[in-house]
Specification:
By secondary structure, the chain is mainly alpha-helical. The protein is built from nine helices and two strands. It is globular.
Length: 312
């Protein structure tokens, strides 16, 4: 069962990347193509209309171009185009997919180089990782699932936590993008939670849905659709919460910095830049918080399906 669950986790994480790059591209194809066609038009009008809401949204929705700071020409950053303007991503490879690849490599690097299995007392980054793992294990998984079920699903919840956390933090680096600010990515992660409690749900879980204890027989035709709807509202809440929170901070930062361009006054930077930096620092806290909340809620939803009633 442990090997089956590990295979299941790996398969679904891979599916997340495919969903975000492939099907996610289809879900946003009309909007993304429209925005890609208008990127150059907006860039030409920046000097006239300033940083408007549409300019900010173009920047947030762009999944084609990486912009890297150019110290030799500040006004013209180095641009890396993943696919031609107006075209479609090659094999679904867009900015979010590239960031998830880098994120996965970073996690593997941290766990293989930073954490030493043979050392009883970790140091440096290994100690920090151990603190996070022990916290998620004891304060999130075991406390909600118990040790028996917690051991089964701890790898999945830890994968959620570190995968989301590193995506959130790497998205704060200028020139990159935040995959968790894309609804396709958060939806794919939420679907993993949905499939987990649907596949591993025990008989008590399904009995509660189709034959709710204590409910009169004549009321079941009303209760069953409500319970089935509840199965879908849980992952919907997971996806939208993470997506909205990771977008909000970025939009506020861009709005503060855009004030400088809109007012065309360098003195405004004395106020807007510190505010943008403060929001950016808050985003670091939000990155940890949202990874924790997603992991906690996923644990609770899964525990409701796998833990026997007598164990609650």
């Amino acid at each position: 069962m442990q090997k089956l669950l590990k295979y299941f986790i790996g398969l679904l994480i891979a599916g997340t990347i495919i969903f975000a790059g492939g099907h996610g591209q289809d879900l946003h194809s009309t909007e993304a193509e429209h925005n890609n066609h208008q990127v150059d038009e907006h860039s030409e009008k920046h000097s006239d209309e300033g940083v408007t809401g549409s300019v900010i949204m173009d920047h947030m929705l762009d999944d084609r171009v990486f912009e890297i700071f150019n110290p030799f020409n500040i006004q013209h950053p180095i641009q890396i185009e993943l696919y031609p303007k107006g075209g479609k991503a090659f094999w679904g490879i867009n900015k979010q997919v590239v960031m998830m690849w880098l994120n996965t490599l970073l996690i593997i690097l941290l766990l293989t180089v930073g954490y030493k299995k043979n050392k009883k007392v970790q140091s440096g980054i290994g100690n920090f990782l151990e603190v996070l793992v022990v916290f998620i294990r004891d304060e999130v998984v075991y406390i909600n699932m118990g040790e028996k079920q917690g051991r089964r699903f701890l790898p999945l919840i830890l994968t959620f936590f570190f995968f989301i956390l590193t995506m959130n933090l790497m998205g704060l680096i200028p020139g990159t993008t935040t995959p968790t600010a894309n609804i396709n990515v958060t939806a794919a992660l939420a679907i993993i939670t949905l499939l987990t409690y649907l596949i591993f749900g025990n008989k008590d879980f399904w009995r509660h849905i189709f034959a709710t204890p204590g409910v009169p027989l004549w009321l079941l035709p009303i209760m069953i659709p409500v319970e089935l709807l509840g199965l879908l509202t849980k992952p919907f809440a997971l996806a939208v919460r993470l997506f909205a929170n990771m977008n909000a901070g970025h939009i506020i930062i861009l709005a503060f910095l855009g004030i400088i361009i809109n007012l065309q006054n360098y003195w405004v930077a004395l106020g807007s830049v510190p505010m943008a930096i403060a929001i950016n620092m808050l985003e670091i806290f939000v990155a940890f918080l949202q990874a924790y909340v997603f992991s906690l809620l996923s644990t609770i939803f899964i525990s409701m399906a796998v833990v026997e009633h007598k164990e609650h």
